[in-house]
From TrEMBL:
Protein species of origin: Litorivivens lipolytica
GO cellular component: cytoplasm
Protein name: M18 family aminopeptidase
First-tier enzyme category under EC: hydrolase
UniProt entry tagged with the keyword Zinc: yes
Amino acid sequence: MIEQNAFNEDMLAFLEASPTPFHAVAEMSRRLVEAGFTELNEADAWQLKPGGKYYVQRNQSSLVAFVYGQKPLLDGGWRLWGAHTDSPCLKLKPHADLEKKGYRQWGVQVYGGALLNPWFDRDLSLAGRVHFKTSEGKHRRCLINLKRPIAIIPSLAIHLDREANNSRTVNPQTDMPPIVCHNEGDTDLQSLLLEHLRGSGYAVANEVVDFDLSLFDTQAPAQVGWRNEFIASARLDNLLSCYVGLAGLLAAGDATHSVLVCNDHEEVGSQSAIGAQGPMLKAILKRIVGSYEDFERAINRSLMVSADNAHGVHPNYADRHDNNHGPLLNAGPVIKINANQRYASTSETNTLFSAFCKACDVPVQQFVIRSDMGCGSTIGPITSSELGVRTVDIGVPTFAMHSCRELAGSSDAHGLAKVARHFMACETLPEV
């Protein structure tokens, strides 16, 4: 495992290259290919070889990568690491163009449970997928990332809202449309996108047919704090877990049957063809094993780690946590537990994960929500119920979850990557 600072710098590069789920999957795919993985097409017949390394995409925004291990699958089962590629954000509406008082603005939809106030007064750019028609009438698609700041959502001056610091609320329909430019000439979205496409190697673009585009904060990810104790970035929830799982998979070797699944649509319920509640992972695992009986036998010997960030104890709001279950940043990964099955962790799977952490000399913490507060959820319970696989929900403790800039500890992802590599290389699960 590379040392912590180099690990974090590479993780920051991954985060910056991944402003949308499409870009995250493209970046993971690039790294997988560099490591010798082969892309599989679900429409083709597969010829898997022991020691082979493969990956599958759906919709360019969900990915399953796996090693077809040298050891017999039915002896040890799968080592599954699950995360999600999507994050709360602002997505452009299909007919986004707005004009008011001479300014060009865009209508936006709030994707997921976004914390809205931090989006104001940020230098925003645009990224995602565009479908276009060429001058010859052919349909094509591409990913775009403008990178530079091209929009902003200005706050209302306090002189015009004297109660802003006491009771400010945000109306996403009326308060969130960003200002893009003065409304002069060809400033409608279609014209601006065509201008960008033609200047970015797609000179044949003649008409924008459709798109899936999101705004993102252009401030670069960074190590912050007096001694660089923290990682500050957009989309730590949950691209940090995708990166950690990818690092574990690439370092695990080819003896075991290890799997990385990164689903889109977790932030909106996972109910889609590419979400955790859809058929993607189960269909791929069934194709790997070949028969229903062998699938059930393999699942019985398997374990899944559902990795999604946890709520660290914020020093300004410590009373929002249960006193005995308050995770600290830079104190190790967190096992997430909920009696009502919002998390899939059980005493058995908690014990297994704790054993992996102990073997790597990585401390482990536990999180339980206050009994008078509602609990979020993850892909863990969904995937566990879809597959019947034993699952533990874990994550790196984080501040400002669902903000456009979140904060995690600089040692936690590195430590969790050690655990991920050990877990995914483990040939036989310990007895517990």
